[in-house]
Amino acid sequence: DVKVTQSSRYLVKRTGEKVFLECVQDMDHENMFWYRQDPGLGLRLIYFSYDVKMKEKGDIPEGYSVSREKKERFSLILESASTNQTSMYLCASSLFGLAVTGELFFGEGSRLTVL
Amino acid sequence: EDKVVQSPLSLVVHEGDTVTLNCSYEVTNFRSLLWYKQEKKAPTFLFMLTSSGIEKKSGRLSSILDKKELFSILNITATQTGDSAVYLCASRDSNYQLIWGAGTKLIIKP
């Protein structure tokens, strides 16, 4: 079974702190994604990566950066956390282009609260 | 602007009832529509629909796409408490990006 692991399930941080969210997948998938999920809104794409060291901005990249140094690991970085970044963050991966199977495999989410 | 709208936003039914969840889309160069189920954890894939009028079925769940009227429905028959979840719909555009609806929260009462 494909497994996408987000190491931190719940985090509480203070405004201005630097935050790292880690995501690891074990199926050698090329594509990895970071979404945030807020009540009443659909999943919104922050960044995605289709290869090691490659990254593309999604719909809401402001205030975030990412790192993909190894194929299996995709990190989301909040350089200076703000209260409006309080959210559920979901990592996902997929094989090849999405056109092949359509299926994204999601991690269980990291719920971040910024005080 | 591309968008996906799901309705209703929430729904409460009794166990054994049949429910229909709706997903309408306005997406440039539509490619496919996907359904996911999200319990209190990772969303899990249900269906991908690309062709109009062809029903996809998995157990008590089924889904169909209407590319003329730009919508999809997800049906769940003989609902069980384990069907309680948020059901997410997403549409893929020609750039293979996904546009997500806000989800329908389904609660099944025993």
Brief account:
Chain A is mainly beta and 115 residues long.
Q: In this structure, how is the largest beta sheet of chain A organized? A: 7 strands, mixed
The succession of helices and strands of chain B, N to C, reads EEEEEEEEEEE
Number of helices of chain A: 1
The secondary-structure element order of chain A is EEEEEEEEEHEE
Helix content of chain B: under 10%
The secondary structure category of chain B is mainly beta
Oligomer: heterodimer
Rg of chain B: 13 Å
Strand content of chain B: over 45%
- Shape designation of chain A: globular
Task: Count the DSSP helices of chain B.
Answer: 0
Please name the two chains that share the biggest interface, counting residues whose Cβ lies under 8 Å from a Cβ on the partner chain. Answer: A-B, 20 and 22 residues
Extended strand count of chain B:
11
Average of the residue pLDDT scores of chain A: 91
Low-confidence stretches of chain B: none
What coarse outline of chain B follows from CA principal-axis ratios?
globular
Radius of gyration of chain A equals 13 Å
In angstroms, what separates the terminal alpha carbons of chain B? 41 Å
* Low confidence ranges of chain A: none
Q: Which bin fits the share of residues in helices of chain A?
A: under 10%
